[in-house]
Write a structure and sequence with these properties.
Number of domains: 3
Number of helices: 18
Shape: elongated
Strand content: 15-25%
Number of strands: 7
InterPro entries: Transposase_mutator
Family: Belongs to the transposase mutator family.
Region (Disordered): 49-71
GO molecular function: DNA binding; transposase activity
Helix content: 40-55%
Pfam families: Transposase_mut
Largest sheet: 5 strands, mixed
Length: 404
């Protein structure tokens, strides 16, 4: 729509200072109010079928019946609007719907502040300082609670039939227990899949009292119920019973222990002076050409460090059945699956968002914020680097399963 120069000149004729245009009583705010009231009047005219100051049809009982003052919250602060009424109360405007109290994307601003980790108190203080709006804690809660409906749809959506790689991990978040009313460290389970096109997709998040293989089994069954028929490789940490839980739901899945988790666990046994040397020698194990060379490298490592650090080599041998699948893959696939870095980057986003909150009052409060962090993570770029080479290898290694 083009606004004529003459109309602009007329509108700006009394504007001499910035606040005359942009202030609380400035032209912009008044113009917005007047335009909205004009549009509401047009909606009522269409509803009643006759113009203002006109006469309705003789058989029509419904008439205009004044207006009701309504104060809306928006970018300009509190905006008073006169909403026209009809006698029968059947008029329901589209521009400002019944029960609506906010305009100009104020809900999105509240959710954005919540996603940044601000508490309800911080959000209220920010809105009052920046926009001059006083909002209740109940309003902030109701706006953010709307996210739970989106979470439910997201958590129950249909998934791809095949995921070449799925990374599985859990992190700890402080949440107040509903029964004991004590703050506890609860486990937040996250599953990150890589599609056949190489796109990262968070498959879901779940909260439980503790991390355990039994709960992971319920998650695997959840993925199957949502349409996942096959997972080629599952990359996990060293949780005992984890491989059995995965293979109970997906018998053909290759379970790969995260090498980086093993290295970090090993370095926990080392003094600071020896860490670099130990890490360098462990690199010979997981960078071996095949599992036989890797086993020899582990023997050499034990011969070198076994006396000083007797716990490291046995910890690798206990996880060996979940380490050796790694050596069956070509470099293009190894580079992606030797570490859970893909899901670790997601965890960093989640931790960055949740660290400003000492604890959460409920599981739902934690779920809302973590989901918003996941949404932000997925918007930053979803493609796995150098996926083309890995995709070609998957197509050769799993011709029937990959191309299902």
């Amino acid at each position: 729509m083009t606004i004529s120069k003459e109309l602009l000149d007329e509108l700006l004729s009394g504007v001499e200072r910035p606040e005359d245009l942009l202030g609380d009583k400035g032209l912009m705010k008044e113009l917005k109010v007047r335009l909205m009231e004009r549009m509401l009047g047009a909606e009522l005219t269409e509803h009643l079928g006759y113009e203002p100051h006109g006469e309705p049809a003789s058989q029509q009982a419904n008439r205009r019946n004044g207006a009701t003052r309504k104060v809306l919250k928006g970018n300009d602060g509190a905006v008073p609007i006169d909403i026209p009424r009809d006698r029968e109360g059947s008029f329901e405007p589209e521009l400002i719907q019944k029960g609506q109290t906010r305009i100009d994307g104020m809900d999105d601003k509240i959710i954005g502040l919540y996603a940044a980790g601000l508490s309800t108190r911080d959000i209220r203080a920010h809105l009052e300082e920046v926009y001059g709006l006083k909002v209740s804690a109940d309003l902030v809660s109701r706006v953010t609670d709307a996210v739970l409906e989106e979470v439910s749809d997201w958590q129950n959506r249909a998934l791809e039939p095949v995921y070449p790689i799925v990374f599985l991990d859990a992190l700890r978040v402080k949440i107040r227990d509903a029964e004991s009313r004590q703050v506890k460290n609860k486990a937040v389970y996250v599953a990150l899949g890589v599609t056949a096109e190489g796109e990262r997709e968070v498959l879901g998040l779940w909260i439980a009292a503790n991390e355990g293989a039994k709960f992971w089994l319920s998650i695997m069954n959840n993925l199957r119920n949502r349409g996942v028929e096959d997972i080629l490789i599952a990359v996990v940490d060293g949780l005992k019973g984890f491989p059995d839980a995965i293979n109970a739901a997906f018998p053909d899945t290759t379970v790969q222990t995260c090498i980086v988790h093993l290295v970090r666990h090993s370095l926990n046994f080392c003094g600071w002076k020896d860490r670099k040397a130990v890490a360098k020698d462990l690199r010979r194990v997981y960078q071996a050409v095949d599992d036989e060379e890797a086993a020899k490298a582990l023997d050499d490592f034990e011969a070198e460090w076994g006396t000083k650090y007797p716990s490291i080599a046995p910890s690798w041998r206990r996880a060996w059945q979940e380490v050796i699948p790694f050596f069956a893959f070509p470099p293009a696939v190894r580079k992606i699956i030797y570490t859970t870095n893909a899901i670790e980057s997601l965890n960093r986003v989640i931790r960055k968002t949740t660290k400003t909150r000492g604890s959460f009052p409920t599981d739902d409060a934690a779920t809302k914020l973590i989901y918003l962090a996941i949404r932000k993570f997925e918007n930053t770029g979803r493609c796995v680097r150098e996926w083309v080479a890995a995709r070609n290898q998957f197509a050769i290694l799993y011709p029937e399963r990959f191309n299902r």
